[in-house]
Amino acid sequence: MQGYESTSEPDRFPREEFSFLPHVVQLLDKVSSGKNEVEIKNLTKKLKEKFQRCHQILQELPGADLSREEQEELLRTEKELLEQKRAARRKYSELPIMQSE
């Protein structure tokens, strides 16, 4: 995904990208004054580009193509797999060869 920096956590999106209010307020201030049409066009263009970036971010989120039920089923499956691996790790760590004396 280009055009923005990712956060340090995997599968997360930059929340600041989804802050529209300051841009909308700034645009409305310019429109209400009725002055500087060029600046209004520039602000409108920047806001539209921001919407497009947000749309791109949302389209690229893992699992965005899955329904809520499919996501919940996938989460249950992954949690079960994690618990199985934890149980196996506990079992192996209890083997005599793994015990240090």
Give a verbal description of the structure.
The structure is a single chain. This protein has 101 residues and is mostly helical. Helix content is 61%, strand content 0%. It is built from three helices and no strands. It has helices at residues 21-33, 37-59, 68-93. Helix 1 packs antiparallel against helix 2 (37-59). It is elongated, with a radius of gyration of 24 Å.
Label this structure with key terms.
single chain; 101 residues; mainly alpha; 0% strand; elongated; disordered N terminus; activator
Tell me, briefly, the overall form.
Answer: elongated
The separation of the N and C termini measures: 51 Å
What value does the average pLDDT take? 84
Along the chain, the helix and strand elements come as: HHH
Total beta strand runs: 0
What's the main sheet like? Answer: none
Our count of helices gives 3
Question: Which spans have pLDDT < 50 for at least 5 consecutive residues?
Answer: 1-11
Strand-residue fraction? under 5%
Query: What class would the helix/strand composition place it in?
Result: mainly alpha
What share of the residues lie within helices?
Answer: 55-70%
- Rg (CA only): 24 Å
Coiled coil: 40-91
Subcellular location: Nucleus
Family: Belongs to the Mediator complex subunit 9 family.
Main location: nucleus
